[in-house]
Request: fold
Amino acid sequence: MNTWLTATAALLTLGLGPCLWVAARGPAHRRLPGVNLATTLVAVVFLLLAPGFGRSSYTDMALALAVLGPTGTLVFTRFLGAGPEPASEPDRPRREDGAAR
Reply:
């Protein structure tokens, strides 16, 4: 086990656990930072695994995750901000002066 893999193991055990804890508990607007940080940590893990195993494809995966992570956050925020649709009121007959009966 080399230094790169030791750093990866430390980052996974010490960093990803609290991120997953935050991402799994509470309302949606409080889970979002945990998901963001977990995405960043996994991208860094891929960057550390690339020299650890001597495979450059892990660098490509980190780059793809670094691009898609914030995009996923924007999509999640878009759906989070929309909220539930309010129930529409049924049309009530109106009097001639415009007031509802």
Summary: The chain has one domain: 3-81. The chain is about 75% helix and 0% strand. Residues 3-81 form one domain.
